[in-house]
Structures
1.
Amino acid sequence: MTTTTEAAPETRSFEADVSKLLHLMVHSVYSDKDVFLRELVSNAADACEKLRYESLSNASLLGEDGQPRITVTLDPEARQLTIEDNGIGMSEAELADALGTIARSGTKAFMDRIAGAKEAEGSHLIGQFGVGFYSAFMVADRVEVLSRRAGSNQAASWSSDGLGTYVIQTVDLATAPTRGTRVLLHLKEDASSYTESSTVERTIKSQSGHVPVPILLKDKPDAEAKQIADGAALWTKPKSEITVEEYKDFYRSAAGQFDEPALTLHYRAEGRHEYTVLAFIPETKPFDLFDPDRAGRMKLYVRRVFITDEAQILPRYLRFVRGLVDSNDLPLNVSREMIQESPVLAAIQKGVSNRLLSELEKLATGDTERYLKLWDTFGPVIKEGLYEDYARRETLLGLARFKTTGSAGEWRSLKDYVAGLKDNQTAIYYATGTDLDRLATSPQLEGFRARGIEVLLLADQVDSFWVTSGIDYEGKPFKSVTQGLADLSLIPLPEGETPGAAASDDVSSFIAFVKETLGDAVSDVRASDRLTESAVCLVAPEHAMDRQLEKLLAGAGRLDMASKPVLEINPRHDLVEKLSAAGTDAELRADAAHLLFDEARIADGELPVDPRAFAQRLSRVLARGLA
């Protein structure tokens, strides 16, 4: 084998303040130190891929070593970590050029563009080899690079402590790899954990376990290497070659779940943007489903190299989905802070979200039982999209399922609801609350039930928000049964039934008396056409906030002043008629007015306005009844 003698080392100065650049890299581009392994493995994988491409036209470049690989070697005693590949390698000129890219292109301009207001403009520079390589200085006091280009009889080394200069020289072939690049990191004292086999293996499997090159690990220089990644990503295989068990195992590993996926979505998108999706919907709720940040857990890869799990591939209301997207179009080393600004990512987000919702639609029509189990688990989260995602609202309304007064506890779609609308019914009626059983027995539903009008029973907190966002379904607005006038007189009663008589003069007079007695406690007191069995109920004024939403906002400290409710009185109720009769004791009528108001509050799950006064009035009324 031809050998070369080592040339005298040449020290060169960076053209910019490298220490300032490294500070920027650590604090502005990358968020955690583990990323250096991803960057160096990524560079090594790139080198192997470049060799594979060049060998298509020049097979001699492979020599007798045609199998690409990346070898990570640990040396705990020397506190060193080495990453070596048998890829394309670099000549001395290429080595200097590759590791000096930032300096040559103008470090000052680069830093200004990254640190300035328009950070996204500099994101295209992140993908250059030099930037990713320099992340090594987050954990290393000194970095040495030894490289030999495939087919060359020369090798070169590069070394630097990152403080302003680097040393480059030609070296003896006897010390160099047959082909490829060896990167040696002299680790800082606080980075000694990167010589621990378990730490490095876990990090590589998590961040780079699916690069298209096998990765080997040696826990000390003279140890036998073990393979920790086989270079074959599951999502790159044809679906026909992947078993259900393999999908299940991958899901459990990627999602950190112990159940089975309720839905598996695996496809490759081609066209303007190329990417592969492998996504799972769990059977059970992930423990972090209601994390206040509502962050998604889809991982983003670029050409099988892990980039981030914070790219928010899916909207927040689909945050229960687990899996990954592998893009062919994004820059390989783009930082997680800047990737959100990428128009390519925006296109991927749109495509993946639409496809997932389309799969849910297919499941809803093709396998109702499976879909209803899924909706029962994640419906409250999906409904967040009804007020967050206007563009997909129609699709989400089609996916939504509800318990209703007419469904006997079964889930109902809006399509089914609208198909059963009564004559002259122009709205979709709903009742919001916190408990389905209490909602089903709400006095406000009585008039609707008497006319056979189906009412949606909405017991999730999110329901109070989306129904008030001006939403409609097939031209039918959503209307609360506890807000404004019910207008039930327009909808006929079932055949054979007749509407109750209008309020008599005595009842009308009593209602006016109640309004005067309650004063500012209510905004109005009126005869009700929605009550058939109960004496009273509370509703919100026509243009005020729905009462349940008002309670939620007040409980969260986000409501300065609550509106005053409307007290509706059933003019046909026996108690009301007796209280309205001429000659009824004025003191009894006054106590009754307050008790009726408190009764309505209790039926709504609230306390009486004044519990002590309520008890006193109740005692007086009971005493009179026993006299």
2.
Amino acid sequence: MNRIRTSLIASLALLMTGALHATDEPAAPEAPPSWPQSRSFAQLGENKDLLLLGVHNSQQVEFTLPRDRIAQEASLRLDYTPSPALLPGLSHMRIYLNDVLMDTVVIEAEQLGRRTRQQVALAPKLVSDFNQVRIEFVGHYTDVCEDPGHSSLWLSLGRDSTIELREQALTLRNDLAFFPQPFFDKRDRNPLRLHMVLASTPDEQTLQAAAVLASYFGSLAGWRGAEFPVLFDRLPSSMADAKPGHSLVLATNERRPAFMDDMERFPPVAGPEVRLIDHPAASYSKVLLVQGRDEDELALAVRALALGGKLLRGERAEIRDVQSLASRKPYDAPNWTPTDRPVRFAELIDYPGQLQTRGLMPRPIELEVRLPPDLFVWRNQGIPLHTRYRYTAPTANDESRLNISINDEFIAGLPLISGPQNRQETLRLAVSPHETANARDKLMVPSLKIGARNTIRYDFSFATTFGSAQPDRCQTTLAVDNRALIDEESTIDFSGYYHFIAMPDLAAFTRSGFPFSRMADLSETLVLMPATPSAMQIGLMLETLAGIAAQTGYPAINLSLSHDWREARERDADLLVFGDMPEGLEQTTELNALLREPGDWLLQAPARQSAQMRAPARLEQAAFPAEARVEVKAQGPLAAIVGVESPFVSQRSLVALLARDEQDFRLLRQTLSDNGKLGEIQGAVALIRESGVDAQLVGSQYYVGYLPWWLKLWYLLSAHPVLLAVLAALSALLVAVLLWRALRWAAHRRVQEN
């Protein structure tokens, strides 16, 4: 009996132990999310179809993969049209991924001269952070004595060809040593999207800190663009099968989002700090907590991220102090070409090897030069361009040329001779539209062709003679692998030019962030927000400042933000306004769009002037008054961007992004993220509807910058030739009268002396 009792107790113990072990088993690991990703050649930078030839038979397309994901599947969908003169079966394409042959695509008879789509599998294990897909065309038009340069050897590779991946998220440690990853990865070509999470009803200092943080990520994103959806009190929802999204959270001990109410999980901080955590609902999404005991410490933590993010490490970083070593100077934005000294090409390159090219038909060498939009280059002796270049010398003095152009405007062609391989040319990119060009000395570029973003292009064109390809005399010659480069010590010099521009000019604002970007840290900018801004209004403000930082390449760490318009009256600053204009101000300034609740009040310009604004406006264009006031009551979103002179300080600007409701602000945000619509914004007022942008130059102009009085007078009079002719005649008459009086006085004096 005792034995039976003992065995029953043992069995019961085993069952209880098993139950306990069953409850202690770890939960199944979260399945990593995966999603399809498609990138066309156009999205990867190839804006037109690629033409493969017999002598230029290879094209390379590059794509990247962020650090926090891997490729599960990979393929290439080719969209191509082969020449109808090719030999089918013998002509083909070779597809390489990172210099590894993936497949051979044979051109069939039914494909000749027709658009064809074909899928090619790529090895996902070869896909890394930086990848190259190379397509080589091997074409034949005859099986006896071919000419590699024959016009029938071509294949058009469509820009709609696509690289398709299935990406899978990777588990990342919460380590700030990799910051700004995963929030920004320079390998990712997609627009940056980060959620900005704030406590409800954020105050001015919190909004200012959010603006600085958004501008920091905007300066990193650059041409990609940045989007900041704003959420109050909650993190974005995250689905297990969706692409991970990351969030930025700004909080203080007294003012924090509602999801941080758990004091054990989110304890109060003892000072400014930055902390990296997992999203509570999805570990593959990260959350960056930027915290401080009060708003001043929160601002200190944000400045530490913007200026010293590379010093962070670990899951949590405490900020001790942030000190700016030197104050910014006007026009010293990192993305802008310096205008106070000659600039070496080595300072302008974006990647190694940019100034080199090779091949039978080498790719052009392009160099981007970004300039402040107010650079005054009117009627001067030209922009010095000192170019050094080397190249593979041709066997004889033939028709080989180096063609130089700027902004697609041809400048000159220089011969590539068979003598010394090292050459240099001192050219002058003139900015007067009335001068002529000399290929060896002064190369003239019309002033209207010089813009905020300029591209200098060098085309090395080598004349090549192949062997004879006639049926009775077949002789082949191996083509030379031509190489050329522009020396990094070449220089361009924009020094000695004044800064002067006619305003308002909304094109300068959308293109370069001017006049706010004059100081890269926006230290002379005051942002004016409504007293209780909505999430849509805050998002518009963040994305606008991120766009300005993308142009300058520097965060707006010294930006000022306020709800009180009285501060604008006391500050010597440019004003950036979001929302509505305050009562009374619209009557004291020439605002050209007043958006109010009763209706949409628009001041329309004369039809003849509106037509002139369809073309780029010259700075000296005369101002004109508004002609009519029209009241409209209608449905549908309508917004406006207005530029006027500040009513408080002369030579200061006010740019207002005006809207009434959420639809209007959404339309504004969409417009500012659309490069096509941004190009239509110019003049003094841009009315934005779903159908497009209507830009007009209305009201009086004002001038910002400095010119010597004599140059400014001559410039202003140049727009009025009749007045200039009258003044010239009056001056000549005055000189003649003075000379006549002087001669009479001299004659009278001689008579008296005699």
3.
Amino acid sequence: MQKAGNKKEMKYVLVTGGVVSGLGKGVTASSVGLLLQSCGLRVTSIKIDPYLNTDAGTMSPFEHGEVFVLDDGGEVDLDLGNYERFLDIKLTRDNNITTGKIYQSVIDKERRGDYLGSTVQVVPHITDAIQEWIERVAAIPVDGKEGSPDVCVIELGGTIGDIESMPFIEALGQFSYRVGTGNFCLIHVSLVPVLNVVGEPKTKPTQHSVRGLRSLGMTPNILACRSTMELDVNVKEKLSRFCHVPLENIVSLYDVPNIWHIPSLMRDQKAHEAILKALNLLSVVCKPALENWTTMAQRCDMLQEPVVVAMVGKYTGLSDAYLSIHKALLHASVACRRKLIINWVSASDLEDATALKDPEANRAAWNSLKAADAVLVPGGFGDRGVEGKIIAAKYARKNKIPYLGICLGMQVAVIEYARSVLGLQNANSTEFDANTKNPCVIFMPEGSKTHMGGTMRLGSRRTYFQVADCKSAQLYGNQSFIDERHRHRYEVNPNMVSQLEKAGLSFTGKDETGQRMQIVELHSHPYFVGVQFHPEYKSRPRKPSALFLGLIAAASGQLDAFLKKSVGGTKANGYIPIGKGKPGLSPKHRYGPINAKVNIGSFDGMYTNGNGLHV
């Protein structure tokens, strides 16, 4: 692995997709990274998105799923969240390459005169810029250790044949030739559908996809075949013959109860050996240490006792819009030994206007809310559904239901408290009512109202605890401060804090100036917490987010026991699993008609069979 002069030779794994989008390339790339990491290699990841946007910050969640935020404030594709969760690493904004970023960098160079009068073209200028970007970012350590990683896993978004991805395919073809065959491995994820009429897997779509890939100058080393059922040897032999891929390099990725099974599924088919062989790393120990990971996946499958969380949001029609929140809830639920059930509640359906216009939708939304053991109001933008979120916060507060408000979810909790307890009926955020006489939430002084992209308060920021024995401080292991990721333009009005605190609301976490409210709690409530930051972004399968852990523990009757354990015993974002708990501690489950809009969702690229939990 060393070149002349002791310079480490970087290895690259490229993951592409064919036939259809949404096959689970992100999960496959994350699983490949985990396999290599379990073999003792240091791994980093890059996601290539062929769209013209500079980043994901201005894209609607309905269009592209959630916007994932990194420590450095980068607003990136949600797949980088998968990489961070699987590999427990911290990526940078440059780990997400977009067409917009590449073209912007090339145009900036042209304007400066860097090309010395040359005609600027896709080849070589754009393709060279892509290759230079990959090489530069691949060398950045992301695991907290010094020195560059050993392997960079690159995921190319979209499917082979998309016109948007052509410059990237050309660049990656040149790149594979330049770094050499022993330093580059191509994994092609393709669909092998099983037609109900015939009842057998059909290989033709994958054959055409690989043919298209080869016509662009690239031949896959490994075929990762997505299907609802495990492929038998006859199907693999047919794929091997027509796709020119060795039989042992064809991996069957069939539907499993949850995506945590995918790494062990690939390991059992010796995918890691095929990758290491392609990368000329045969000296690496080929025994991925996945015991803890596999145990976690199996435990998730066996969970029986449910915990029901009402997710009251704006984008509930697309579960990918709240992907990291869903993951954080799941991490906490597994730690608490509870089976997660999410009631997706459209915030606007809780409002009085919907009760008049569509009473059935209003009734269903309220049934889902009342059937929940906990209420979570996530972040969002725009005024649609805000009154419904305020209603949900009020319901949780008055009925002592565990509540977690994130970003806007914290702001609506403050607005609701000002209206209901302080009697300020017109209290509001200036985002929704610019002329409100009681502005509980205001626009940040340094914000921009003319430019949307990259103008929010973004990335990792520090929060200092103001109250030593509050629930949030205890959940974070009694640290004096924490670092969490932010994404917002509005914040609680500091001029109203004194009035709110006199009425019983406690702002237990603030920034270094003491002017920005970061955490709010209601001490008289079993668990009522609102945070301006987004704790979901740093939650990991084996390190659940503190506040999500608190929510699920409170919803399942385990919070007091956990807080006793946590005193001096845990650190921020590094938690000890709670254990099974005592059945007698569980609250009275308010199920009612459990079929009232209960929907786990179906994301992660078809990697679930509908019978188990989506991880």
